[in-house]
Specification:
This protein is elongated. The chain is of the alpha+beta class and 193 residues long. The chain contains 9 helices and 8 strands. Strand 4 and strand 5 form a beta hairpin. The termini are far apart. The protein has a 4-stranded antiparallel sheet. The model has no long low-confidence stretch (mean pLDDT 93).
Length: 193
């Protein structure tokens, strides 16, 4: 097995243990892909077909509003799985784009092939269920509450506390777009601290 896959399977096993047979079968469907900084992994309104694991690099998951504003919903750094999950599951155009903020190495796989594998390897299905529960149910609720009830300053403090390694890797306008403030507002908040 390729050494680069060790981190991939370790990340999966944080959600559910995987058998050797499941890993071997899945490995046949994995592909490496490199993205240059600013390269799009997914274009807004395209129908996604793949999921990727971030082996190295950083991506943003964002939407361009009709007025041109950019709203960043999430950042995906090393050891995370990246996809427009709702669009992938619904086989619908994505409301979001995914862009590399740094040179990035991904390990990707086709969702439909993965679904077929889940029929034969229930441990892959348990991984998927646990992954969705943690990242798209539990964490989503936390983010919704944070965005709805905390002030911009409190959201910034929460962001830097929960993402200490990302703060120095992101440009100010990326953090502002994630927090739902302008870069000028973010500058004021940072000066107050």
């Amino acid at each position: 097995m390729d050494n680069r896959l060790t981190g991939f399977f370790a990340a999966m096993e944080q959600y559910a243990p995987l058998s050797g047979d499941a890993k071997n079968a899945f490995t046949e469907h994995l592909h490496f892909r490199e993205l240059k900084k600013h390269e799009l992994y997914l274009v807004q309104e395209d129908i996604p077909q793949k999921i990727a694991y971030v082996s190295r690099g950083l991506l943003s998951y964002y939407r361009i509003q009709e007025n041109g504003d950019i709203v960043i919903k999430r950042f995906f750094a090393e050891n995370s799985f990246v996809a427009s999950t709702a669009a992938l599951v619904k086989r619908a155009p994505s409301m979001f784009a995914i862009e590399a903020l740094e040179d990035t190495l991904l390990i990707e796989f086709h969702f439909e092939q993965f679904k077929q594998l889940m029929h034969n390897y229930t441990d892959l299905a348990f991984f998927w269920i646990s992954y969705l529960e943690e990242n798209w149910v539990a964490r989503k609720e936390e983010l919704e509450i944070t965005l709805k009830y905390l002030t911009a300053k409190e959201r910034y403090l929460d962001f830097i506390q929960n993402n200490p390694t990302l703060v120095n890797r992101l440009r100010q306008h990326h953090i502002a777009a994630f927090l739902g403030v302008t870069p000028t507002q973010l500058s004021r908040i940072r000066k107050e601290l």
